[in-house]
Design goal:
Layout (H helix, E strand, L loop, with lengths): L3 H12 L5 E2 L6 H10 L2 E2 L3 H7 L2 E4 L6 H15 L4 E4 L5 H13 L4 E7 L10 E5 L4 H4 L7 E4 L6 H29 L3 H11 L1 H10 L4 H20 L5 H13 L18 H10 L5
Parallel strand pairs: 1-2, 3-4, 4-5, 6-7
Antiparallel strand pairs: 5-6
């Protein structure tokens, strides 16, 4: 699905000589535009993609990962096609294993994958960590616009790595937002920001860069935080941090800014202006 990450990955593969297809039936105009910009060939339906593909990279919001796998498995059974299925979504190890079982039941090979970094072409490296019985089809793509590393033969290991990493990055962004919102609601935000300028200058810079932009991605990151919480619980670690992170993203998803995309975010909106709007969504106890 050619969203921000998907169309970047597709473009990178196309630029390295691979034929890249996608299924755009029922997709938004933004998604269609991203696919066109990346030069991806639309085959219409997921079933048509299953029939035509050698390798399927599932890259979409994590809340839809199970449904996509079930749809692909049904289309495999209906058509007899068995492309290798790579789940690249931000899901817990348990969810990855469940998806793998769905694909394996349809007779196809499954690779668990976690993506770390920005989409190819957006600066910095994009790293695909993969695990499973046979990761060779993904390792073969190493160097084609991104790096691919195998982290073992057990499905779930790649997702465990991704969940641990995103637990820090997105978890930190939501902690920043929660701290700032609490200070605002308590009437001490200006004083807190002054103190941050003295003692937490680098953290404050990160806040000013990131916080006002979070609503655009908040809706799809709720499920990711829930997957991280599930991952931590399965490891015997409290899920509470990331259950709270999901609540912060849920609040941001209810703001007017949530209708923005990464292309339409207002670059002039300050953190303080964003926080004022975020605070309007807090319901009195």
């Amino acid at each position: 699905m050619p969203g921000d990450m998907g169309h970047g990955v597709g473009r990178a593969l196309k630029e390295h000589g691979k034929e890249v297809i996608t299924a755009l039936d029922g997709r938004s105009e933004r998604t269609k535009g991203l696919a066109e910009a990346a030069g991806l060939r639309d085959v219409g339906s997921i079933r048509a993609a299953v029939e035509a593909a050698d390798l399927i990279l599932s890259i979409l919001p994590p809340g839809s990962a199970r449904d996509q796998a079930r749809q692909v498995a049904a289309d495999m059974s209906a058509t007899g096609a068995r492309p290798v299925y790579v789940d690249c979504n931000a899901v817990s190890p348990g969810t990855a294993i469940e998806i793998g079982e769905t694909i394996s039941a349809a007779g196809a090979s499954f690779i668990d994958c976690g993506i770390i970094g920005l989409a190819p072409g957006k600066g910095g490296g994009t790293r695909f960590y993969v695990s499973g019985e046979d990761t060779a089809p993904m390792v073969a793509l190493n160097g084609l616009g991104f790096d691919v590393s195998s982290v073992g033969s057990e499905p779930g290991r790649a997702s465990a790595l991704k969940m641990s990493y995103a637990g820090l990055t997105k978890g930190t962004w939501t902690l920043h937002t929660a701290v700032l919102l609490a200070a605002q609601q308590l009437g001490v935000l200006p004083e807190l920001l002054n103190e941050f300028r003295i003692s937490q200058a680098s953290t404050l810079k990160d806040m000013e860069t990131r916080v006002s932009r979070l609503p655009a991605d908040s809706g799809r990151w709720i499920a990711e935080m829930e997957e991280i919480a599930s991952t931590f619980a399965g490891a015997g670690v409290t899920p509470g941090f990331h259950e709270g992170a999901a609540e912060i993203f849920r609040l941001l998803s209810e703001t007017p800014f949530a209708s923005e995309t990464r292309e339409t975010i207002d670059p002039n909106r300050t953190m303080e202006q964003a926080l004022a709007v975020f605070g309007e969504q807090i319901k009195p106890k």
